[in-house]
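fyi for ur records
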Amino acid sequence: MMMGCTSKKYRVSFDSLGFKTAKTMYAPGDAVEVSYMVGTDMDYWFYSDDVDFDQDYDWQKGVILRFTMPEHDVKIGVSSRNSMTAEPYANQPPEEPGPVDSGGEDDSGRKWYCPECGTENYGKFCTECGKARP
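which gave:
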């Protein structure tokens, strides 16, 4: 009788495309390694109700999930979101050039609030947005 032929195997499945593993059926106690190539500017969350896994990263394979196969089927999923922050004014020229002055105190030392952004200031220019003191 051949060893391993009678051992029941269980399936590893995924809730979306992009996952890779050497095979889809594993015997209980087998070491399982699943990879998922990630894109830039994205945050990813991997989950499974069936197993706890260790997570690592390999620049050629992407995210690596490792776990020991239990005595039941396992389903792994991923959710993601774009982590880039839109900058709506990125391609527009500034309204006025930024000041050369670091925003330090002027001769008066009086406190003022910037009419543009509301920041409290003491110098000639707003320390937050660079607008000149009114």
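The mean pLDDT is 83. thats all i got for now
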